[in-house]
Amino acid sequence: MLVRYGRMNTLGFFEHNETRIPRITTRVVVKTDKGLELGHLVGQLACYKAGRFKLTDEQVGKYFEDSDIEISCGPAGKLIRYASTADVSEEQHLRKIAEEEIECCKRFAKELKLPMKIVDAEHIFGGERIIFYFMSDGRVDFRELVKRLAQEYQTRIEMRQIGSRDEAKLLGDVESCGQECCCKRFLKLLKPVNMRMAKMQKATLDPSKISGYCGRLKCCLRYEDKTYTELRKQLPKKNTRVKTKNGPGKVVDTNILTQLVVVGYEGGEKIAFPADEIEVISAPASKKKKHDSPSDAKKEDNTADNKQ
Predict the structure, then answer these.
(1) Fewer CB within 10 Å, N side or C side of the chain?
(2) 195 inside domain
(3) What's the domain range around 259?
(4) Helix axes 143-153, 85-111, angle to 10 degrees
(5) Residues 100 and 69 in one domain
């Protein structure tokens, strides 16, 4: 069965012996390499029949690959039981305890003068360990911190360094679109986003408007980048000479989504045409560095060598 579990909302397949599986989102107790954890039975692929997927492993793997979701089709653990009311209450209790553990960790880190920011803590449901998530500009020697925390809570302590996007994934709230942060709600694989994507979509380049909770470019800029890239290939480049029903002209602008090409004429008139209604005469001249003559180019090279 497919289960979403852990503080980082990891997805994984879990072995089970159930003959009937609920078709709605259900809380479950699973055994992972970290210990007992509470998770959610995922219902988006609930094509269950006699406790098994109708989809093959290859089809499921392809679905996640196409969706850019990081998941292994191998078993992540075993189902222990469906969660009871007592299990859910215990989870809520552990979350309150985790808040106290965060404050304790912050105090110890401050006393040891460690350059780190404690972001969150995850108290594993079975009590086998406590995982602290922190941010830092570089590597941190937290051995003494781990020792103090282990003495304080008498359990195994694990420290995990994360980045700004992971911090948003843990603590993110509602974004400017009115929805919960994508990285917290469903994104599993946080791929890089660059300014080229914002420029291509002609989004505002104001950092305050295109940056997300994490302070970096919003992940949603990547969603339509593939479509924009494919559509742009169908349009002529700027300054391309084209032939239209109004005569020859030059491309001065394009609109990727509407597939319109703005053509400028010698008289200064500009008219927009659908891309399939124009004919390319010649591509714009490529920009190359020109020398007056080969001898001049050689002189420049010699001058550069002498300066070195």
Answers:
(1) C
(2) yes
(3) 241-282
(4) 140
(5) no
Assigned domain for 11 exists: yes
Q: What is the pLDDT of residues 205-251, one digit of tens each?
A: 888 888 888 888 888 888 888 899 999 999 998 889 999 998 899 99
Cβ burial, residue 303 (10 Å; 0-12/13-18/19+):
exposed
Within-domain flag for 141: yes
Helix residue ranges, H only, the chain: 57-66, 85-111, 143-153, 164-171, 182-185, 195-200, 207-210, 225-232, 294-307
- The verdict on 144 and 207 lying in the same domain is no
Q: Take residue 196 and report the two structure tokens written for it.
A: 């080229």
The string of pLDDT tens digits covering residues 248-279 is: 999 999 999 899 999 999 888 999 999 999 88
The phi and psi torsions of 171 (rounded to 5 degrees) equal -115, -5
192 within a domain of the structure (yes/no): yes
How many domains, the chain?
Answer: 4
